[in-house]
Amino acid sequence: MAGDKVVVLGTYVSMFSMRAQVALNEKGIEYEKKEEDLANKSPLFLEMNPVHKKIPVLIHNGKPVCESLIIVQYIDEVWHDKNPLLPSDPYQRAQARFWADFVDKKVYDCGRRIWATKGEEKEAAKKEFIGIMKTLEGELGNKPYFGGEDFGYVDVALIPFYCWFHAYENFGNFKTETECPKLVEWAKRCMQRESVSKSLADPHKIYEFVVSLKKKLGIE
Amino acid sequence: MAEEVKLFRTWSSPYALRIVWALKLKGIEYETIFEDLTNKSPSLLQYNPTHGKVPVLVRDGKPVCESLVILEYVDEIWKHNPLLPQDPYEKSMARFWANFGDDKLMKSIWQLFIAHEKDQDVAAVAALENLKIVEEQLKGKKFFQGETIGYLDLAFGWIANLVSILEEIMSLKLVDGERFPHLSSWIQHFIDAPVIRDCWPPRDKMIIKFQVMRENYLAAATPK
């Protein structure tokens, strides 16, 4: 739609920001990305997400939409004529929403525990993480994408975590590719899409970010 | 073509109630299967292998899980008496507030419910703050989305029933008419609505159940 002003408030490292960007890129929407400093939140940010004070926030013609999966659905519904992310069949849509919700409920928390804890807790987190990835791999099956032939909603929900794998693997001492080869194949396939490769952070920069975050939080 | 619709639920789950109300609002006939979560049926485990939780809606043998996902599915399959707004922005707001209800509000009220006396004050602050946020949303509205019951009312429906049960057990009033006039008024409108009214689980049973749950939590987390 001509004359749309779209802004994404996010951070370079946030997999949740990346979801919004991937979705917008898939739709070919021009947008401005504003990097938010969460230690020093901007007035715009606080005005646009007063309830949670979290990124990402999508601002479409001045109106804010918060929560990354809600943002992705909004993008899909507003720009519905290009590269639909959710399937048109209600049952398939429900399945997509279920699996995106699963990613939300499980991956971030577990991934965080891998780098933020040590000893038994870390080992448990690593096992849990591999279990989660195996479940997702099972859901993917032999399909090229979670949505089937086409890149879709669940792919958008999960792929940003791929740039965090290097950090998780380093701290957890495992290789996702060994445990879940099909999932990594899927991730590499997604990375071939410009919408994705443009949006994801450099895994090494993520690793460095986690190293410095651990120092800041006093975690060894 | 007659559809076969089944709802797996427990007698007490507030999440399952959302679906009971939605199906009633849409006038859909269905079969209820009550589950005992300490002894899950093979069917439940088959239909929800990932979480093993209720509610699960099964339509023509195909399961849908997670209550808010089910609500959207119900709304898309049976398009009359729409639950969600049509406009994408309004829809995103409804989804946002439903998430807030589950992720923040319910969690903070629950934290207060299972808090030891010494932690109650702090827990109450969070719960009250979140309730205030919801109160703001109801200003000038009979129901969350306007004049009629919709998705967000069903998502917040647990406030209208479960909160008073928890309050009775705690001997602590959270949602009073003075601090929360709009929320109190919404609760009254909601529980009076014919579709909602007859679905509540038996109150005395709920009190016993949650009392036991609270005792168990408090015992498990006894401070040293």
From TrEMBL, chain A:
Residue ranges annotated for the GST N-terminal domain, each copy included: 4-83
Gene3D superfamilies: 1.20.1050.10, Glutaredoxin
Protein name (Swiss-Prot/TrEMBL): glutathione transferase
Similarity remark: Belongs to the GST superfamily.
UniProt xrefs under SUPFAM superfamilies: GST C-terminal domain-like, Thioredoxin-like
Keywords tagged on the record: Transferase
Reaction(s) this enzyme catalyzes, per UniProt: RX + glutathione = an S-substituted glutathione + a halide anion + H(+)
Keyword hit for Transferase: yes
UniProt cross-references to Pfam families, sorted A to Z: GST_C, GST_N
InterPro entries: Glutathione-S-Trfase_C-like, Glutathione-S-Trfase_C_sf, Glutathione_S-Trfase, Glutathione_S-Trfase_N, GST_C, GST_C_Tau, Omega/Tau-like, Thioredoxin-like_sf
Keyword Transferase: yes
All residue ranges annotated as the GST C-terminal domain in the record: 89-209
E.C. number(s) listed in UniProt: 2.5.1.18
Endpoints of the signal sequence: none
UniProtKB/TrEMBL annotation, chain B:
A biological process term (GO) from this entry: glutathione metabolic process
CC per GO annotation: cytoplasm
PROSITE patterns for this protein: GST_CTER (PS50405), GST_NTER (PS50404)
Any coiled-coil regions, as ranges: none
Gene Ontology molecular functions: glutathione transferase activity
Annotated transmembrane regions: none
Enzyme class: transferase
UniProt domain GST C-terminal: residue ranges: 87-210
Domain of life: Eukaryota
Reaction(s) this enzyme catalyzes, per UniProt: RX + glutathione = an S-substituted glutathione + a halide anion + H(+)
Pfam family, one: GST_C
Gene3D superfamilies: 1.20.1050.10, Glutaredoxin (3.40.30.10)
Keywords: Transferase
Span of domain GST N-terminal: 3-82
Alphabetized InterPro entries for the sequence: Glutathione-S-Trfase_C-like, Glutathione-S-Trfase_C_sf, Glutathione_S-Trfase, Glutathione_S-Trfase_N, GST_C, GST_C_Tau, Omega/Tau-like, Thioredoxin-like_sf
Enzyme Commission (EC) number: 2.5.1.18
Recorded family membership: Belongs to the GST superfamily. HSP26 family.
Name of the protein in question: Probable glutathione S-transferase
Lineage of source species: Eukaryota, Viridiplantae, Streptophyta, Embryophyta, Tracheophyta
